[in-house]
Amino acid sequence: MPGSDKETDLTERIEAFLSDLKRGGSGTGPLRGSAETARETTALLRRITAQARWSSAGDLMEIIRKEGRRMTAAQPSETTVGNMIRRVLKIIREEYARSRGSSEETDQQESLHKLLTSGGLSEENFRQHFAALKANVIEAINELLTELEGTTDNIAMQALEHIHSNEVIMTIGRSRTVEAFLKDAARKRKFHVIVAECAPFCQGHEMATSLSKAGIETTVITDAAIFAVMSRVNKVIIGTQTVLANGGLRAVNGTHTLALAAKHHSTPLIVCAPMFKLSPQFPNEEDTFHKFVSPHEVLPFTEGEILSKVNVHCPVFDYVPPELITLFISNIGGHAPSYIYRLMSELYHPEDHEL
Amino acid sequence: YFNRSYLLFGCAYQQSEGRELTKEEKQRLRKEKKQQKKNKEKKDDNASQESEKEKKSVSSSSSAPQPPTQPATQKAPSAVPAPAPAVVPASETPAPVEKPAKSKAELKAERRARQEAERASKQGKKGETGQQAATGKPKAPPSELQPVVKRLPEHIQVDNPDVLKKLAKKLERQQIPLRLDYGYKVSLFSHLHQYSRKAPLTQQLSIPSSVIHPAIVRLGLQYSQGIVAGSNARSVALLHAFKQVIRDYTTPPNEELSRDLVNKLKPYISFLNQCRPLSASMGNAIKYIKKEISNIPSQCKEEEAKGKLLNCIECYINEKIILAAKAIAKYAIEKISDGDVILVYGCSSLVNHILCEAFEKNRKFRVIVVDSRPRLEGREALRRLVQRGISCTYVLISAVSYILPEVSKVFLGAHALLANGYVMSRVGTSQIALVAKAFNVPVLVCCETYKFCERVQTDSFVSNELDDPDDLIVTRKGKTQLEDWQQVPLLGLLNLVYDVTPPDFVDLVITDLGMIPCTSVPVVLRVKNVDL
Questions:
Q1: Do B499 and A227 make contact, defined as CB atoms within 8 angstroms?
Q2: Do B431 and A290 touch (CB under 8 A)?
Q3: What is the pTM of this model?
Q4: Which among B283, B298, B322 is the end of a domain?
Q5: ipTM for the complex?
């Protein structure tokens, strides 16, 4: 039967994506950038919308939530998956509301006024069936996909507004966004870049070779020299893995030290992060915040006897509090860290924060 | 006459610096004299006398823009990372000096007087500290706070071709090969040397070397390959090598031991400096030895003199390093309480000693060892501590903000303590202090007094050491990203060795004289100088 074929095909794809996620995060650095993950997630969600069997918006949301929970459980540190799912859920809500005819420009947040005046309306169970809903949702998801394609370019376009000539810019590790940002600025301006290599994965090396091939004068330094060199740096531009709900960052390890050194020298810290990295998580969930990989990276097995008597830690991420950050540059422009909570409320519905 | 006589001293000082006045210096002198003739009528003599005296005596000493690398004067060996240029050379600013025109006869008389003064000052200045030497020149202002006449060491003037030429000439004279810089240097550091470990200096020496004692050759090789590393280890190795040199030394006929031995040591020090720039502790040790040698009375017999010197060196090692370590451990153990989690960085022999002693005294604590690429010295510290049975954790420096919330104290070692309270130590130390401060964890620095240095420094750029840049290259998952970094024109690798920590990050310095705040370092230096 064609129906069941489509279903099995769909489940196959979902399984393939899940195993990809599990493998991709196995500690040797991301095999794919977060932008790709976001795109793939959105494409998969579009496929689910198109091929799964659902009759009302509520059903669709249930299906997506279920698959979403499985996906986030496969790789908890890859937050873009969860973010895309929440975006799609918000899209579904919006399309449903539009089909129903009620205007949704009012504030999503709970307010005392809303509670008292619109008593029963908040009991939306999304059970009504609308024929055009499927087409509308898929169209909206397509728009989301186009937005995702253009994020890196949108951020890179703003580069010349932030970099003047003869600057010394510091960065850490490897971020494709920052790479595009700097390369775009290098077309018109001459500046120096100092890259901290970010042990033990040493992704800074790749970044440095790529930047120097694009004609930017680059220097590679060790992580230990970050504070020593910081006094000559004009700006610090970094990428991040996730932007948290309070405006803080979950970035590659070593970023907190970099941020502290920049604060000490009053050097502005600029974070280039596209909107899909914004996550409604807060940093106080101790057990899910940190991710560790094999300590072999730090203390190899060749060290012999002492290995059994020593604890070795190899965390992958660092928390950077919002007080240390000067500016966020995203595909929709620049924001201060105190504005992040507002952006989040526009992207996600509060009921979707917990999938 | 008054003006002439201090020009005389000015010139004497200049001349005693280099073997002969170079062409540029002679030209400058001629220009100065012309200018002085012009300004003769304009200025009042007496009023500007005092200021001129001081300016001239200090400026003429530091005005030589290419300070000679091995001044034969009271200056400690240039290898001591001694110094910031004290005064802006006033030679360019129109010193409104009145000088009468000179005739040939007057010049001749001047020259003769100069030579006399030079000989006299050399006798008076030999092996003494700057303070006393300066009083040998009666024109210098007789105050207690003598401006210690400082000259820039050669190793932070690599971008000055004249300095390099002078160094090359000096090394040629001493028959020591010149070590060449390697690789692309980051522009911020073009004033420093950058050597490659794969090209040790000994390759250019003929074996057996007739100029340099084999113990020194071995020592130089150990330094340049990193086999002997750490400031205490390097100082002790140096002193042992010097003991060997002294044992094998015989005074040539018609020479005095006190003068000849010092001259013998100079090429050795140049050689060691070429192998790896001398550390502050080594500089202080060398100063001490030179002083001891020159204080040997001339009627002393050779065997007796040698015995005395060997004894002095033994005492120095014992007092300044071994006993100091014991004293510091005693103070530091008071600061370690049960249940502490102590963070250490890299491998400091002193800090390891303290931790082992504390463990012997049955304090219950655990240690977190922080390490950094490319040296990875922390692994050595880890091995030593684990061997004693101390429970340890090991992380890299990028994870320090993850691990710091668990830590109760930070113990750091130092390479040198500078006179403005800054701590010069392995690169990364200032970072650890910064993050510890952000988490409100106390930072304690442990340092023996013989590492205290009169230099001042505010950042890690002006005076540092650049290690082999190839050390940064690493192969991960079969790929070596930076393999051909030399071919890529715009790519530079920076491998710093030291950095300076500002005193507001450091809560306490534990020395053998007691526990002092960072800002009391110049007080200790003054006390030590007075003792000497």
A1: yes
A2: no
A3: 0.79
A4: B322
A5: 0.88
